[in-house]
Structure formats: structure tokens, C-alpha cells
Amino acid sequence: MSGCRGEIEPGDEVPRVFVRCIGDRTPSLVQYIEHGIEEEGVSWAVQPGYDGAVMEVAYRAAMDSKLKIGVSVTAGGRVVVHHKQLPGDDPLFDVADPTADDARKLGSNAARLAKRMPLKPIGEGWTA
Amino acid sequence: MGYVAGVDIGNSSTEVALLRRPDSGGETTFVSDALYRTTGLKGTKKNVPGVIKALREASKEAGIDASEIDRVLLNEAAPVIGDVAMETITETVITESTMIGHDPSTPGGVGLGTGTTTEITAEMEAHPTGEPIVFLIPETVDFAVAAETIDEWVAAGYEINGAIVQRDDAVLIDNRIDIDIPIVDEVGQLGDVPRGQRAAVEVAPQTSGKTIDELSNPYGIATVFDLSPEETQKIIPVSRALVGNKSAVVIKTPEGDVEERTIPAGELRILDERGVETPVPVDEGADRIMEAVMDNWPVADVRGESGSNIGGMLNRARDSMAEVTGQPVDSIEIRDIMAVDTLVPQEVEGSVAGEHSMENAVALAAMVKTQQLPMQQIANGIEDELGAEVLIQGVEAKMAVLGSLTTPGTDHPVAILDMGGGSTDAAYMDEAKSIDSIHLSGAGDMVTMLIDSELSLDDRELAEEIKIYPAAEVETLFSVRQEDGTVNFFDDPVDPELFGRTVLLKDDEMRPIPIDKSAEEIRRVRRRAKRRVFVRNAERALNIITPTENIRHLPFVVMTGRSALDFEIPEMISDALAEYGIVCGRANVRGETGPRNAVATGLVLSHIRGGSHLEFEIPEELTSALERTRLQADGQ
After folding, report:
1. Minimal CA separation from B169 to chain A, in Å
2. Most buried residue, B41, B112, B180, B364, by most Cβ within 10 Å?
3. What chain B residue is nearest to A114 in terms of C-alpha separation?
């Protein structure tokens, strides 16, 4: 259940959920996503400095992740949770400006996807 | 050209078999069949619209107009209805909150720790360092702050042995503290946890796959709290409720008391045909009740104690039968009951996090019987609508035997088992082709009730679906694993709502089951309920109906009715009967309709004296329409 920010060390073999931030700064929302992943006991890495479309960044992260799960966060606070096996333009969750609680649930769900556990509803219901 | 329609009005569906009869008297042919939902209670005038619908459907399928049907044959439905009820006979009451036995998905840390329950916001100075502490962490305290506070107290020389957390924060706290202690989280009613009391917190080692082993053991709790033998006896319900958990908390309060009470469930009084009454206390369980029923067979009536659930159910069944038939309530008799012992999860009174304990209960199904249903009203109603001549051709059970004998490979003597929703009926045709029949309580509805209560669903409709559809687990976004372990893949991803859940495979869709149970557990509960109702009743019915009262002497058993369509009930019964060396299988009426349409087909066969559809001659008494009806019909 280790997390890390920035570059992961070369040779790191730990299966992680990749949380990629678009822009150079790490939005404050990211910490709540991290808490969600951590409480579920899954490893992750936060990586800032990406640019491009939020959907593509999340999909790319899922492709790179050994857990097949990627998350992208924009500076404006949009969060996308993606899975490698899903079509690139059809992520699991795409939520604009979630509350701290929902951001944590998005983190939980990213981790629960890896654990094969039922997901938590986000906001008013299911946002896919 | 003439058309004859046999109509079987059942509890839930109305079935039609349509036969073409050439005027020249040549070969008759079954041209179509139909099935429609029964409208209204079986045996009442409200059935007429359903019958008309079913007749129209069958006509349409045969390419004729309903007005071309010149004769409609009704069965005299067995004047019985079944009802079910459940009586809980034990109850666990915790007079002071003493345990937290819920199972959060992610507790933190590991091991067993004891200490005094203390608010994490408490002043350090107010507590002596010598006293071990279990912290209570409310949702208003952030996990990072809580972790810091725990480390501060430890640094100041306090012994912190565990924590109880309101939010889902256990792992986050565990990852941020320097000590290794058990942490239980997601305790919603943290405010109800008594302060300043001795508490024990246990979390099972997470990677070991084990469950807690101290607090689920009465002597483990006795060791932790230094209990006397008398006190140890009292905490047995607590330890029992915690078995199988990954984490638990037990708090000892001075006034704390847990008791397991036996609720007086009243008694049943079983009357045999000589009027001798046998009282049976319901709380002695199903075996005693069933023994008393079979000892007093044939049962003339059963009475329950008023005020109990079972007494209420028996009265309700009597009342609805009285209403249908317009006969006085006291002329209505309960001719059979079936009892099954069951365990029902019930919320423990005085629990803090919605804990459940398994309570003993008895499930009961009753069979209510009256003289006769008002079939003539229905016959008149159909006549008015269609203008065809309507006859009440025969008695349900006998017609079912005739229809079932069109199943390829059958011969008489034969026994049929008609397994419906409300009752399990059996009929036997001997070598001389005379037919005997019985109606037993306990069928599909009882299975549904057992599933509903044992899985604590409180949703009959969902329980019904769990009964008829197999379960599966959604393992990935693109695959499910079925009960038998096979995996199926999809082209499109499942809804995120379904991911990781147990679902029912309902035709082409998947319905999530909103409870935290694996497909394996659901399968176990479902099959046990079916076995205890249907296999038990099949053996009971066949033993009673066989002239020698010995199942082994039956050569053929044919299963019909709604529950014979179930995906596993026929196999379970065939399996159970295989050891007696009987050929037992699901009917295939006319070689094409499966276990459906037996009565409707039987009615038509009775009317045309078998034609070329049966291998043998139908005896006179089975071919004539019922006397009272014919008089009426002729008079018009």
C-alpha cells in the first residue's frame, strides 16, 4: 500500500494505479483521490506534468498501469477514471468538479476495480 | 369442422389446449395451446376475462376465430388454497450496547487490544498513564489529526491498544501511526458506544484469510474480561454473532446484559378425522410438528393460537377461502400443514452498528380446503361471452393424470406430482385406471418465503427471482463467473453498478442482488430451501398416494406444474427418488408442451374419450362431464 508522487523509481515492479495531473501543479483534489486508494490498500503513483485531452491521458495511464487502471485530473478539477479494456472514449467515471467526498470515492472505486469489489455510487448516482 | 377447448384455471396461470374435430368423425388434432395470467382469485367469476384472453390467443395461433370454438371444457379446480407464515422462536436482546459486530471491508492494523474507551479529543492530563486506552475517533476528527494524536499519547507514555473509528479511515490511520494496533472503522453510531468502559478490539491478520478467533470464542471473551462462569454463559450470543467476522469490538458495561430469549410461539392443535386433538408447541420445531401431522393423517383440521403469526396466517387463509366460496368460515378446514426449521438473521436489539444474529424460526405452509368452488358462475360467464357450450368436464387431479399420460414413455400405474406455487398435489392411477389424489401444503411460495427470510431480503419479488434464476459474480468489466465456475465474456463492458457484485442471470439481463452475499452462498440457501420443501413433499406425497404406502412400488412418476419448469427442482427430486428405483422425470405433455398444459389436455381427452392420443381406453367414469353441470347446461 505504498504511494508515491512524481517519478517512480526505475525498475519499480509494484502494480500501481496511475493518477496523472494535466499541467505542472498537482490539484488539491488529488489528495482525496489518494486517500480513497490508500484506504482500500492498493498502491498508486501521482504523476504531474501531462498535457492533452483528459480522456486520452486517463486512457494512456490505464495502458501503462499493471493494474490496468488510470486516473487523470485537470487543473480545473475534472476527474476521469479509466480501464485499459474499455474503449478509449468511454471511461468508467468522468466527473467535473467533484466534492472532496466524491473525489475520495473515485479513488476508492479506482482501487476497488483492482480488487474486484462493488463500486461506490458517486454524487447523485452512477456517472459513467 | 368443430373445435374443442380445454381450459385449466390455476392459481397463477390459465392454460388452454385447442383441438380440431372433423365433422366426418375422422382423426382429431391438437392445433394450438395458450397460456395467460389468471385474472382474480382462482375459482371466482373474475377468472372469466383471463379465460377469454387465453381462448382468443389459442384461436389466433390456430388461425381461427374464437367464435368457431363450439365447446369449452372447464376443470373443477381443487377447492384448496395455500398460505405461508413464519414464526421466530428465539430473540437476542442486548440491554446495554456491548458489541460491534459489523464487518467493515477495510479495518486497519491487526491483533487483539483491550483498554478503556476514551474520546480522542480528551485531555491527556485527565488520564493516568497506567490505564490502557481504546480511542474513539468521531467523523469530526480528520484521520491525519487522529494519527498524530495517537503518536503524541504514545510518546507521553500511554498505552494505546486499539481504536474505533466512525468514518472509513482505519487503513489511513494505521499507515500514519508508529504503533501496530487493531482499528475497526465505519461504526456509524459511534455516539452510542459507552465511554469509560473496558473494550476489546480485534482485527484478523489480513493476508492470512483467517477470521477473528478470540472474540468469536466465549472463553476468549471470558479471558479478556476476566468473566465468571455465569457471566460467560450470558455472552454466548455475542460470541456467536461475531463468528466469521474479520474484525469486532466487545465492550463490557457494568449493567450490560445479553440474553437470548425464547419467544412463546403458541401451539398448534391438530385434529384427526375421529376428532382427537393433538397439541404441538410450535417452538419445539418443525420435526415435532411434521411427526404429529403424519401420526394423525388424514388431518381433519388444524387450529393455531390467536395472537401468534401462525394463528393469524391460519385465520387469514380460512377467511379468504370463505370469501371465495361464500361459505361460512367454520366450514373451512385446514387439511395439511408443512413446517420447516429455519434460521433468520434479525437485527440485535441494542446493537451499535446494525449487527444481526441468527434466530431460530419455524416456517409454516397451510392447505385450506372447502367443499367446492363456484365453477358454475365461471361457466355461465364464458357462455355469455363466447356463445359456446361450456361443460365442467372433470376434476383437476384426474384430468392432470390423463394429460400427463400423453408424455412419451409413460404408462399406468402412474403417479403424478403437480408442483405449483401454493400446493404440491399428487395423483395415482392404478392398474384398473381408477384415480386417487391428495393436496399437500408447501410448494413454490414456501421456497420463496424461506429464501426471503434466510437472506434477510424483505422483498418477496426479489426472493422469487433468486428462486428461479441462477446467480453469478461479475468478475471483470467484461466477464461473469457462473455458479458452477464457468466464465462468460461479453463484447461490451457491464454497467459500473454491476462490477464486483453478485447478480442474477435473468434471460438476457443481469440484475444486481443488493446484499453482500457470494453466488455460492445464494446458491446454497436457494437449493436448501428447494430441497427441504419439494424433495420432502415429493416423498411425503408419494408415500401417502401409493396404495401400499411404499414409494418403491411406483413404476412411473411424472412431474408437472409451474415448479416442474424450475431449472433444478425436477433434478433434485429425480435424484432423491433414484435410490428407490423409480422412473421419475418431468412431463412432456403430448410430446411437445413440457410440464405445462397437462390439465387442459386431459380435459379435451376426457371429452373425446382419448381418441388416438392415448394408448389405452379411458374408463367411463373419466369421460363424462360432471353431473351437476350437465343438468344445468341441458336446462338452458
Report:
1. 6
2. B364
3. B476
Question: Looking at the domain covering A3-115, what would its CATH class be?
Answer: alpha beta
pLDDT digit string, tens, across residues A9-68: 888 888 999 999 999 889 999 999 999 999 999 999 999 999 999 999 999 999 999 999
Mean pLDDT split into 10-residue runs, chain B, 636 residues = 92 91 87 93 88 96 94 85 78 63 87 96 90 96 96 96 95 96 92 89 89 93 91 82 88 67 78 92 90 92 83 83 81 90 79 73 86 84 92 90 94 92 90 91 93 92 96 93 91 90 91 90 96 95 86 88 93 92 92 94 92 82 66 38
The fold of the B1-77+372-399+596-636 domain, in CATH, is Nucleotidyltransferase; domain 5 (3.30.420)
- Give contacts of B 86-145 with A, CB under 8 A: 105-106, 143
What are the extents of the domains in chain A? 3-115
DSSP assignment of A36-88:
HHHHTT--EEEEEEE-S-HHHHHHHHHHH-TTSEEEEE-TT-EEEEEETTS-T
Taking contacts as CB-CB distances below 8 angstroms, the residues of chain A near B169 are 39
Q: How far apart are CA B2 and CA B609, in angstroms?
A: 16
DSSP symbol at B439: E
| Interface membership of A8 toward B (CB under 8 Å) | no
Domain with CATH 3.50.30.70 in chain B: 96-256
B423 closest CA partner among B396, B390, B389, B453: B396
B83-91+263-369 fold: Ribosomal Protein L22; Chain A (3.90.470)
For residues B282 and B441, give the distance between their C-alpha atoms in angstroms, rounded to a whole number.
Answer: 17
> Phi and psi (nearest 5°) for B150?
-60, -45
Tell me if B476 and A85 make a contact (CB, 8 A cut-off).
Answer: yes
- Residue B63 CA to residue B202 CA, distance in Å, equals 72
Across the interface, do B500 and A92 touch by the CB < 8 Å criterion? no
Among A33, A37, A39, A59, the strongest candidate for a mutation testing the B interface, having the largest count of B CBs within 10 A, is A39
% of chain A at pLDDT higher than 70: 94
A89 touches chain B (CB under 8 A): no
Give the C-alpha separation, A16 to B162, whole Å: 30
For CATH 3.90.470.30, the residue range(s) in chain B are: 83-91+263-369
